[in-house]
Amino acid sequence: MHPQLSDITVSPDIMIVDALRVLDETGGKILIAVEDGRLAGVLTDGDIRRHILAGRTLTDPLSAAMNRDPVRISPDASEVEVRDHMMACRVHCMPVV
Hints:
By secondary structure, this protein is α+β, with helices and mostly antiparallel strands. 36% of the residues lie in helices and 15% in strands. It has helices at 5-8, 16-26, 45-53, 79-89; strands at residues 9-10, 30-35, 38-44.
């Protein structure tokens, strides 16, 4: 089962440890950080891993580890365009905005 968008939409101000809990509870692979109704960035397990390996902590805000310029695609894109874009960018998930 895939998580609902509302389940994986978070504030960039939450702590990374709380973001990990959301990922675990939802089974999602990505969190969408939204600020003032706009995409602020995304956070994946890989982003968290790189954050920890850089000596940072899990009590830092999500904004400290998130990707502020994620791969994304327009809602007008066809399924083929989405697939091709994901393959070209080597990502498994991305926001549609």
